[in-house]
Amino acid sequence: VQLVESGGTLVQPGGSLRLSCAASGFTFSSSAMKWYRQPLGKERELVETNTPTTHVTTNADSVKCRSTVSRDDSKSTLYLQMNSLKAEDTAVYYCSTRVWGALTYNDYWGQGTQVTVSS
Prior knowledge:
The protein contains no helices and eleven strands. The protein is mainly beta. Strands 2, 4, 5, 6, 9, 10 and 11 form a seven-stranded mixed beta sheet that branches. The protein has a four-stranded antiparallel beta sheet with strand order 1-3-8-7, with no helix packed on it. It is globular, with a radius of gyration of 14 Å.
């Protein structure tokens, strides 16, 4: 299983960006995918969840109405669009998935991509 995030950058307050997570090594189309973020010195926070088939999304209150998660199953890629960025959105953003075996599961994470919101 491999998850590779990209798209993190320095952006001014009020700006927008789109993060990508390229997935491989598992059946992406049938897997729930999640975006987390971790500000420096703080705990990791769940930002968005995207479930397969129905593509239902949920999101944390901290990004409500400012973020949209989507997926392209043909490319095995997860996206996170964030708008009206604030300084408090500065964090390392990770995508994650849980892969089930016969009886147990493993959680997988990408290496993260840094988003910095600053003027």
